[in-house]
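QA checklist item 7 of 12: single-chain prediction sanity check.
[x] sequence parsed
[x] length recorded as 108
[x] structure emitted
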Amino acid sequence: MTLKLRFGLYLALGAGILTLLVGAFNSVTLVTVLYRTLVSLVLFAVLGYTCGQFAERFLQEKLAETMPKGRNIDIVSHNEHGDELSVPAAEFKPLNPDNFENITLTQK
C-alpha cells in the first residue's frame, strides 16, 4: 500500500478505537457510540489520506534531491589483447612450517 493509504487507515483505526473506548467509559447509548465511531472513522480517514498525500509529495521531493545527478558509469577493465592475466608461480609461496615470517598477529 502507498504511504497515504496506510497513514489514512492507521489514523482512522486509531481514532475509531479511541472513540469506542471513550463512548463505552462514558456510558453513552450504543447508537450514539456507533454513530460517533463511524463519523470519526470517515473524518480521520480523509484527514489521514490528505496528510499522507502531502507527506508523500514532500518525501518524493527530498528523495529527488538526494539522488545522484549525472550518468552512471560502469567500471570494467577490458583486456585489449585478449590474453588472461596470470600470476607467476614464483610469487606464490604456500604457508609451511619453514615460512612463519609471513604470518602477522593481531589481537582485538
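[x] summary fact logged: The mean pLDDT is 79.
[ ] second reviewer sign-off
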